[in-house]
Automatic annotation (TrEMBL):
It comes from Hansschlegelia quercus. Keywords: Isoprene biosynthesis, Magnesium, Metal-binding, Transferase. The lineage of its organism: Bacteria, Pseudomonadati, Pseudomonadota, Alphaproteobacteria, Hyphomicrobiales. Its cofactor is Mg(2+). GO terms for molecular function: metal ion binding; prenyltransferase activity. One of its GO terms (cellular component) is cytoplasm. GO terms for biological process: terpenoid biosynthetic process. This is Probable farnesyl diphosphate synthase. Pfam families: polyprenyl_synt. It comes from the Bacteria.
Length: 305
């Protein structure tokens, strides 16, 4: 097991315990009540599955600056809540219309569409609640910086905007759909890559990284985000639903443009290998201290789900 895989396992365990706590039925100070069905839907979506890659990236980048413990865990939880909300909403009939997620019924199938929408909304709000807490960092300026990074990565100019462009490219809003390679790359950098890059950047913020160090982390995060989506597209083409944990072959069936479809499988695999090299090069100034992040890039490329 690589250093990153060990960190991934350690982080996944800590995230599971922390999510079980923050998604308890008992209201937190300032809350009035927690509806039982809504809590159950949020727990269904968030507990008992997932690699917890994004929280592990927060932890790995924070460790470059000797920051460990509760602070990166809290920031990672916030990112995971945003990721979880996005999956709930992506699976809805109005979006990707999926029945399976992580080998289990999607939230709207296990409950209903209205509950799923509200569960996603509540997870989005919870993410920023977590970042605002002093447990995340004692310095309010650091907490504000974390909020800004996550909000921009997940909102209009990031993940949500990327989903809108993706729907437009599918022709959902009339003629003129479709996307060339540059268009697909833009969609993927927003829809998937932005949150992965933000995870890496947030670890740097927790560690008080210099502007130069943050720029290097940003380059790494962008390469990693691109690699993650490319690997995901390859799994959709070559993987099977049992191992991937969700339906495969849906992109082609829906006529969705992907880089694998535009480039071909062999060229996509070659590009994936070059992205690992680019990610590695971005971390050169950190030396061996960044080996866990380098291993993260290889993990993303070699994963089977």
């Amino acid at each position: 097991m690589s250093g990153f895989e060990a960190l991934l396992s350690e982080t996944a365990e800590a995230v599971e315990v922390a999510l079980d706590s923050v998604l308890s039925p008992k209201p937190r100070p300032g809350e009035i009540a927690r509806p039982e069905r809504l809590v159950a839907a949020m727990r269904h979506a968030m507990l008992g599955g997932g690699k917890r890659l994004r929280p592990a990236l927060v932890a790995a980048s924070a460790r470059l600056f000797d920051v460990t413990g509760e602070e990166p865990l809290m920031a990672g939880l916030a990112v995971e809540c945003i990721h979880g909300y996005s999956l709930i909403h992506d699976d809805l009939p109005a979006m990707d219309d999926d029945d399976l997620r992580r080998g289990r019924p999607t939230t709207h199938r296990a409950f209903d569409e209205a509950t799923a929408i509200l569960a996603g909304d509540a997870l989005q709000a919870l993410a920023f609640d977590l970042l605002a807490q002093e447990r995340t960092h004692p310095d309010p300026a650091v907490r504000i910086a974390l909020v800004a990074i996550l909000a921009r990565a997940s909102g209009l100019g990031g993940m949500v905007g990327g989903q809108m462009l993706d729907l437009a490219a599918e022709g959902r809003f009339g003629p003129g759909g479709g996307a060339d390679e540059a268009g697909v790359r833009l969609i993927q950098s927003m829809k998937t890559g932005a949150l992965i890059a933000a995870s890496v950047a947030m670890g740097g913020v927790l560690g008080g990284a210099s502007a130069t160090a943050q720029e290097a982390l940003l380059r790494f995060g962008e390469s990693l985000g691109f690699a993650f989506q490319l690997a995901d597209d390859l799994l959709d083409v070559a993987g099977d639903a049992a191992s991937v944990g969700k339906a495969t072959g849906k992109d082609a069936a829906a006529g969705k443009a992907t880089l694998v479809g535009l480039m071909g499988i062999d060229a996509a695999r070659a590009r994936l290998a070059s992205l690992v090299d680019e990610a590695d090069a971005a971390l050169a100034a950190f030396g061996s201290e960044a080996d866990a992040l380098r291993e993260a890039a290889r993990f993303v490329v070699l994963r089977d789900r």
